[in-house]
TrEMBL record, chains A, B:
<dbReference type="GO" id="GO:0050270">
    <property type="term" value="F:S-adenosylhomocysteine deaminase activity"/>
</dbReference>
<feature type="binding site">
    <location>
        <position position="67"/>
    </location>
    <ligand>
        <name>Zn(2+)</name>
    </ligand>
</feature>
<dbReference type="GO" id="GO:0090614">
    <property type="term" value="F:5'-methylthioadenosine deaminase activity"/>
</dbReference>
<feature type="binding site">
    <location>
        <position position="94"/>
    </location>
    <ligand>
        <name>substrate</name>
    </ligand>
</feature>
<dbReference type="GO" id="GO:0046872">
    <property type="term" value="F:metal ion binding"/>
</dbReference>
<dbReference type="InterPro" id="IPR032466">
    <property type="entry name" value="Metal_Hydrolase"/>
</dbReference>
<keyword id="KW-0862">Zinc</keyword>
<feature type="binding site">
    <location>
        <position position="65"/>
    </location>
    <ligand>
        <name>Zn(2+)</name>
    </ligand>
</feature>
<keyword id="KW-0479">Metal-binding</keyword>
<dbReference type="InterPro" id="IPR006680">
    <property type="entry name" value="Amidohydro-rel"/>
</dbReference>
<feature type="binding site">
    <location>
        <position position="301"/>
    </location>
    <ligand>
        <name>Zn(2+)</name>
    </ligand>
</feature>
<dbReference type="InterPro" id="IPR011059">
    <property type="entry name" value="Metal-dep_hydrolase_composite"/>
</dbReference>
<feature type="binding site">
    <location>
        <position position="146"/>
    </location>
    <ligand>
        <name>substrate</name>
    </ligand>
</feature>
<dbReference type="InterPro" id="IPR023512">
    <property type="entry name" value="Deaminase_MtaD/DadD"/>
</dbReference>
<comment type="similarity">
    <text>Belongs to the metallo-dependent hydrolases superfamily. MTA/SAH deaminase family.</text>
</comment>
<dbReference type="Pfam" id="PF01979">
    <property type="entry name" value="Amidohydro_1"/>
</dbReference>
<feature type="binding site">
    <location>
        <position position="213"/>
    </location>
    <ligand>
        <name>Zn(2+)</name>
    </ligand>
</feature>
């Protein structure tokens, strides 16, 4: 197996006991085998040597909620009320999406994500074979799921569920193990209770986790109470969703009692601060979730409601807004925010060997150019990453021991072609 | 005078009636003389031709509140309660700042700002001659003021005021007119009432505006009431501050009545969303200020409480947080947020010929590389700048008709030297 050695680097490990290491990191095959003082002798002999001078290395960002293909609708209908935006802009356009459009939008998103330091993402959408193929080509890691909406006749429900099961069987463990799968009822308000139960049964059979939208808006919570007599958390609990390992997206409107239930079942929450602000959904109770011991991570949501896929922005927002809104200047400190966007993201999708830089872990990491004014003086590099850096400071990206980006150039994808085709797909969709 | 022509560009003009122009812009000397279809004949003959293909041009960002030298303390004491942070970290270090430190920190900040697309900034600090000289060298535009704290004996007050007057006389209209000056009582809580009155008298004599911090924290408002029997707005009104053109920083904690008073006196408010969130000061009532017709602009505050000087981040935060906090998804739309960061910033410091791209205006503009995935598809470029771009997408910066940055390289400043010296200054300050 190929051995690569990075010297003269500064490494944010995301390990509490030695958060910043200066020196050398060695990877062999897909894994990190060494990090620390420059080693001598046989251990130090490598096939590839990289000079890490002027660079800061850290685990890649893990984006735990999104709809990659929606980048085709970036900026198409901003600054609108949510229902108008959905009914007049998003749904009519999405209904026209072909498999080729999903491929095109997904590749555009993957390109944006990887160049911005995201090494793994969760995707819930349709035409998921196209998404999986794009992940395979790109070299990223992903946790994929065919999101199903159940507001349709029984035979359509059946077909969608069958498709979701087929996809999971075909791709769970695919792309050399870089792809895992989940089962996804889209949301409590888009799936009748019996359909959710059938999806849960399928997840049990496949031994897969569940991913769903939950309690994103106050209106949706209220309607759940009116329609089913309970708020979304109790509703999903009753339907057995939490009997599976579960990752919920958003979780903006939660009571203390609901936070307790999420903790009890070890339900993971993907916090999407940018999307929640832009769509005026509100500010999730992240300090309370963290205090209760709920595992929280970060997601961008789709680019149509964000409007980028910039995980560093989500990390910074997580560190900033909860201070400003709670009035507590020590809420979600920099270290905690960076954890949410890296190692806690990986743990949220049940990966224990991704998200820190230490021997035995997958070599999923990024490098940032820190020879820039906003990284000076060298007071606290963790602070600098969270409060001062931008995703465009990322120069190199490695996933599963393979370089996907070097010197800001993506090695696995044709950047020009992807941007050109996305533009063409958008123009066809709007002219049709 | 030198004539420069930019062809094949897309220009965000910040004029309501023609927000986006595709074609050619021509500048002559320090001003824009043409924008529109590529002109033929004599008008089109130029000394310099620039190909604007793949670039988006827009007015430079105007940062209306900050303390540039404080970038020397970037990341030095984050995630702390405000009073601890001030008393244990900021004040002891700032007390040690020499003129050379102020020069070093200011150059670091100017370099960061200009590379991120800021073409003009407001600075309130000490050793202002160093700041003015750094502005002169760099080529930026600035509105500068010696901020005075009056919690000291009368003779020290006198000396500070005299220094502030001297500075204003020396530099107002300096650097080929790129520097203007203001008078600055630091804040109602750091200046006794009679001292504020004397500063106002000096401002009348010099015919200069006033800049001050106001109503940044709830605690400060409460203490003003306890000490002086009124909230800061009424207090400053009574002391005659608003009899001068006034720009206040922060304005986080305002009642409806206070917003009315600010409007009545045409007081301008510099909104500093990132700093206000990070220090947990709260969320300013920007939608209400805008609705009342108060002129609002954006500032970064010092890099010690931000921790960068990234105006695009302030623009994005202004567009995002007020939606999320108010629950109104159309609060502060993209166009309005971009205005706050450009033309309204210039108007806030009484410059009417900066901030839009049209004939007769100063040639203060920037270019962004939009051949990147997060700018696709080409739906709405104003949305893309506000919701999707980063300051590191800025490739070129022009101020007063002079190129300061080309292809991401600053032409007027020695980047390596500035970063090296800032690091040295910080190390001396912490080891002393």
């Amino acid at each position: 197996m190929k051995k690569t050695r990075i010297d003269n680097g500064i490494f944010i490990t995301m390990k509490e006991e030695n958060p910043v290491v200066t020196g050398t990191m060695i990877m062999e095959g897909s894994r990190i085998v060494y990090i620390g003082e420059p080693p001598a002798g046989e251990l130090g002999e490598c096939d590839e040597r990289v000079d890490g001078k002027g660079k800061l290395f850290l685990p890649g960002f893990v984006n735990t909620h999104g709809h990659a293909a929606m980048s085709l609708l970036r900026g198409y209908g901003d600054d609108m009320a949510l229902q108008l935006w959905l009914q007049e802009k998003m749904w009519p356009m999405e209904a026209k999406f072909t498999a080729a459009d999903v491929r095109s939008g997904t590749l555009l998103s993957i390109l944006e994500m990887v160049k911005g330091g995201t090494t793994m993402f969760v995707d819930m959408y349709d035409h998921m074979n196209e998404v999986a193929k794009a992940v395979e080509e790109s070299g990223l890691r992903a946790c994929l799921t065919r999101g199903v909406i159940g507001l349709c006749p029984r035979e359509v429900q059946d077909a969608k569920l069958e498709e979701a099961v087929r996809f999971a069987k075909d791709w769970h463990g695919g792309a050399d193990g870089r792809i895992t799968a989940m089962m996804s009822p889209h949301a409590p308000y888009t799936c009748p209770p019996d359909y959710i139960e059938r999806i849960v049964a399928a997840a049990h059979e496949l031994n897969l986790p569940i991913h769903t939208h939950m309690s994103e808006t106050a209106r949706e919570v209220q309607e759940n109470v009116e329609q089913y007599g309970s708020r979304p958390v109790a509703h999903l609990e009753k339907l057995g969703v939490f009997s599976r390992p579960t990752l919920v997206a958003h979780g903006v409107h939660l009571t203390d009692e609901e936070i307790g239930i999420l903790k009890q079942y070890d339900v993971r929450v993907s916090h999407n601060p940018n999307s929640n602000l832009k769509l005026a959904s509100g500010v999730a109770r992240v300090p309370e979730l963290l205090k209760a011991g709920v595992l929280v991570s970060l997601g961008t949501d789709g680019a149509a409601s964000n409007n980028n896929l910039d995980m560093l922005e989500e990390i910074r927002l997580a560190a900033l807004i909860h201070k400003g809104v709670s009035g507590d200047p020590v809420a979600v400190p920099a270290w905690d925010a960076l954890k949410l966007g890296t190692v806690d993201g990986a743990r949220s999708i049940w990966l224990e060997d991704v998200g820190t830089l230490q021997p035995g872990m997958k070599a999923d990491f990024i490098a940032m150019d820190i020879d820039q004014p906003h990284f000076f003086p060298r007071t606290n590099l963790i602070s600098h990453v969270v409060y001062s850096a931008t995703s465009r400071d990322v120069t190199d990206v490695c996933v599963d021991g393979r370089w996907l980006v070097r010197n800001r150039e993506c090695l696995t994808l044709d950047e020009e072609k992807i941007m050109h085709e996305a533009q063409g797909a958008f123009e066809r969709l709007t002219s049709a």
